[in-house]
Amino acid sequence: MTTSSQAGVRYHVHNHIATVQFQHPQSNSLPAHLLNQLAQTFHALGNDDDCRVIILQSEGGKAFCAGASFDELMAIQTEAEGLQFFSGFAHVINAMRKCNKLIIGRIQGKCVGGGVGLAAACDYAIAHHSADVKLSELAVGIGPFVVGPAVERKMGTSAFSQLAIDAGKWRNAEWAKHKGLFAEVYDNLEDVDEAVHHLADTLAHSSPQAMAEMKAMFWKGTEHWDILLRERAAISGRLVLSDFTRKAIAGFKAARK
């Protein structure tokens, strides 16, 4: 899938390794069309027999993902539009969950909100030491409802609740590793890339059938997420219309200028 150089998703498959890269000029944030492209890409790769393992990464050397697009959040006018927008996150997480290929996350920088959800939905995440994490949703009057199940599954209820409640606080990559979000953390990007590609190459030479069975085992108990994440998206879609959230998002946008 190819897209413009400004925002979108592209991927290629080489030697049974699929590399999926998303990008957006606003710190790799996630507008609706990008979320849709990511979900479609994971669906396509799940059906591609030439693909045995997937690397998920974002563009550049700074933020991995800044989460939801504030511009699109401000444009939401009805609960139906809110449900549609937040369902984009649900579709991506469920596509990653259902994809029968193991997904390695290359996390080169900070993860906010939905970016933490993406990292949590990876089966194995390898991060740079600058990959601080934050669930900032409560600070803008919503909550990490859609990404919550993925984050809680990976890190446990205690760590998830710490991130969700103290929404303005960054946790560093070592904290995230200790809590299970990241499997490995390195001090420079060259070591991150070496670790990512070494693991991907090893998995590309492993049994596709065995890895598919392992993935199903890892995600056992999440079969109800199609319904659960849609319900959670409806909560976010309702809260995003509140006066509190409107004012909070406007404040965040003004602070960025």
Structural account:
By secondary structure, the protein is of the alpha/beta class. Helix content is 50%, strand content 15%. It contains eleven helices and eight strands. It has helices at residues 32-46, 70-75, 79-98, 114-121, 148-155, 157-165, 173-178, 189-204, 208-218, 225-239, 243-256, and strands at residues 8-14, 17-23, 53-58, 102-107, 111-112, 124-128, 133-134, 184-186. The protein has a six-stranded mixed sheet, sandwiched between helices. It has a two-stranded parallel ribbon with strand order 5-7. A hairpin with a 2-residue loop joins strand 1 and strand 2 (17-23). Helix 1 (32-46) packs parallel to helix 3, helix 3 runs antiparallel to helix 10 and helix 4 (114-121) packs across helix 5 (148-155). The two termini are 32 Å apart. Mean pLDDT is 94; it is low at 1-5.
Q: What keywords describe this structure?
A:
257 residues; two-stranded parallel ribbon; alpha/beta; 8 strands; six-stranded mixed β-sheet; disordered N terminus
Distance between the termini: 32 Å
Q: What's the overall geometry?
A: globular
| Succession of helices and strands | EEHEHHEEHEEHHHEHHHH
Residue-averaged pLDDT: 94
Strand order of the largest sheet: 1-2-3-4-6-8
Q: In percent terms, what proportion of residues is strand?
A: 5-15%
Rg from Cα? 17 Å
Total strand segments: 8
Low-confidence stretches: 1-5
Let me know the largest β-sheet: 6 strands, mixed
Number of helices: 11
Considering DSSP H and I runs of 4 or more, what fraction of the residues is helical?
40-55%
